[in-house]
């Protein structure tokens, strides 16, 4: 994709090149003087991008065309269900269950899984409506770009990429832990200790890097081939989970559940925020909409079916673990393997470790496929270098984006401790899911040119009130406010805000193919729960999140803003020229250029 000298947009037909024009083809980067002029226009350009929203047709056609070759439509609901199961069931259940049950929540870890699963299911509904209506590889980035505009989409995009890199790194490090168990060794024996580094970054993990490299090879060869490999592994994985449940329950001791809520409600919600990590991955399925044969049928079945099965299995597995051992004796690194060994079934730990390795492998595979498609669509908008948007004409896969994301994942996996990864990952994911729920409310209640100013203002006020009351509730919880009085104010205020939206603002759009039920209640509940879980995460994780978001904003103001602005204006100018030729007058040109990339003013 390049911006031509005449302001038009043309496709690069060459393969994987690395010239400057492949990374920075925009006018603003043509010379240092041009870049200086662009920087001086940062304020005006930022104002334009803050109020500009992309159109669905732009995401579905013009933006998608910037990859050159099309992705192959090979996937069915069957593929999506197993992609969903493969993406989700991995390190979360096999590692974090033990960590949280022992240190944070006790046997009530099953309740924490229910809370996290309920929140995840609400997000699944929101994602499903968008994926059916806008079936492109960009996932939540494309949805937010259409409804909340370029700037919010970019902030979310950076956190999406962080989510995938950290998630893949966490799973890869867990892969090493269970591989060590399979060989009857301690994980530290397979890691290199670098005493000169901080303790949280000193256990170097070369095995994790090797696993990520192998996954990269699978992901770039074929999406359909990856799918087949994934559901074979996933079926074996489900068989191992059934074995764990049946064999574990034969060693159950109900006495281990007596001190059920030892850490109280705070422990339940604190664990829920971390265990949300165990549900991360289903959003990768929405990025495959562009490769799905029948998105309107296949995506709802795939997403909802996978999440329902996953939640049920998580809850049963959590109960099984807590029945096998007192929560204080649960091993934080390999809880199920050690539990079987302690109950006299030492041989069973090898089956558990084998199953865990298979589950983590499928998580890495699906993550590799999903993260590359996110990055591909982001690069199509030129917020990231368009070199990353190229789709290989033979394999029909985004090779450059896949390799780039997995290199970043491997670097993080090599250095960083799992506990840091899981907390930071949960923040990014909960933040994105909250934004998608907000975007769904905007989609249902606001249509540019149709919604009156009065209704638009009421919508903004209601959404602001929903967010404010959700943040107030989460803040009270996060700072450990004593008593029930603050919640008696904030929770009814949230309910009243949602009721006002339901009663006083008419819906401006009905879903064409599949829609979230009970709007605005379910999206509003998704916002409240995601924000509440954010309030249960430790302060150091928020500091890391803030540093990352600040770095994103610096990149956006100095690079992404100018690249996407030039691309939008060039595409609008080309569209205007085409319209002028077809219609025989210049009127469409003025309309097209005014709002940029087929965009709408909020």
From TrEMBL:
It is found in: Membrane. Signal peptide: none annotated. The keyword Repeat does not apply. One of its GO terms (molecular function) is L-glutamate transmembrane transporter activity. The chain crosses the membrane at residues 75-96, 108-130, 204-222, 229-249, 261-282, 303-327, 347-375, 396-415, 427-447, 459-478, 484-505, 512-533, 545-565. InterPro entries: AA/rel_permease1, CAT_C. One of its GO terms (cellular component) is plasma membrane. This is Cationic amino acid transporter C-terminal domain-containing protein. It comes from Panicum virgatum.
């Amino acid at each position: 994709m390049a911006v031509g000298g005449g302001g038009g947009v043309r496709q690069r037909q060459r393969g994987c090149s690395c010239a400057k024009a492949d990374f920075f083809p925009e006018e603003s980067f043509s010379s240092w003087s041009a870049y200086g002029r662009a920087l001086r226009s940062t304020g005006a350009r930022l104002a334009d991008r803050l109020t500009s929203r992309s159109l669905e047709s732009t995401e579905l056609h013009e933006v998608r065309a910037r990859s050159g070759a099309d992705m192959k439509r090979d996937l069915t609901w069957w593929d999506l269900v197993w992609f969903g199961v493969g993406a989700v069931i991995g390190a979360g259940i096999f590692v974090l269950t033990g960590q949280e049950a022992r240190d944070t929540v006790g046997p009530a870890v099953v309740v924490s899984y229910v809370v996290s699963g309920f929140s995840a299911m609400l997000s699944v509904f929101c994602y499903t409506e968008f994926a059916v209506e806008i079936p492109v590889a960009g996932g939540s980035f494309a949805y937010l770009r259409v409804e909340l505009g370029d700037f919010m989409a970019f902030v979310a995009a950076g956190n999406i990429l962080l989510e995938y890199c950290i998630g893949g790194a966490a799973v890869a490090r867990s892969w090493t832990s269970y591989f060590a168990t399979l060989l009857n060794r301690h994980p530290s024996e397979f890691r290199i200790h670098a005493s000169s580094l901080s303790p949280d970054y000193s256990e170097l993990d070369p095995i994790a890097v090797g696993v990520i490299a192998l996954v990269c090879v699978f992901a770039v060869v074929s999406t359909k081939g990856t799918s087949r490999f994934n559901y074979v592994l996933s079926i074996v994985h489900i068989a191992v989970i059934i074995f764990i449940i049946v064999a574990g329950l034969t060693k159950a001791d109900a006495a281990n559940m007596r001190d059920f809520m030892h850490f109280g409600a705070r422990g339940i919600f604190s664990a829920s925020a971390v265990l949300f990590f165990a549900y991360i991955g289903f959003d990768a399925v929405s990025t495959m909409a562009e490769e799905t044969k029948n998105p309107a049928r296949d995506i709802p079945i795939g997403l909802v079916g996978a999440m329902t099965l996953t939640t049920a299995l998580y809850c049963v597995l959590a109960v099984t673990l807590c029945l096998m051992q007192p929560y204080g004796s649960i091993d934080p690194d390999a809880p199920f393997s050690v539990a079987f060994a302690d109950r006299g079934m030492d041989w069973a730990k090898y089956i558990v470790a084998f199953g865990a390795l298979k589950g983590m492998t499928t998580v890495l595979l699906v993550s590799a496929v999903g993260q590359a498609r996110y990055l591909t669509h982001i690069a199509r908008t030129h917020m990231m270098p368009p070199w990353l948007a190229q789709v290989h004409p033979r394999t029909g896969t985004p090779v450059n984006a896949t390799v780039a994301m997995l290199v970043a994942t491997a670097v993080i996996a090599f250095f960083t401790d799992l506990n840091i990864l899981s907390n930071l990952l949960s923040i990014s994911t909960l933040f994105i899911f909250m934004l998608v729920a907000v975007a769904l409310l905007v989609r249902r209640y606001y249509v540019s040119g149709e919604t009156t100013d009065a209704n638009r203002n009421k919508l903004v006020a209601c959404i602001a009130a929903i967010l404010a009351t959700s943040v107030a509730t989460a803040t009270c919880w996060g700072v450990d406010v004593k008593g029930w009085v603050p919640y008696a104010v904030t929770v009814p205020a949230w309910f009243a805000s949602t009721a006002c939206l339901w009663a006083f603002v008419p819906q401006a759009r009905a879903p064409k193919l599949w829609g979230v039920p009970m709007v605005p209640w379910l999206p509003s509940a998704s916002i409240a729960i995601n924000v509440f879980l954010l309030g249960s995460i430790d302060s150091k994780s928020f500091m890391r999140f803030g540093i990352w978001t600040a770095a994103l904003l610096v990149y956006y103001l100095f690079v992404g803003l100018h690249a996407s602005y030039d691309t939008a204006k060039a595409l609008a100018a080309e569209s205007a020229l085409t319209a002028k030729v077809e219609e025989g007058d210049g009127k469409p040109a003025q309309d097209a250029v005014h709002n940029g990339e087929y965009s709408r003013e909020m």
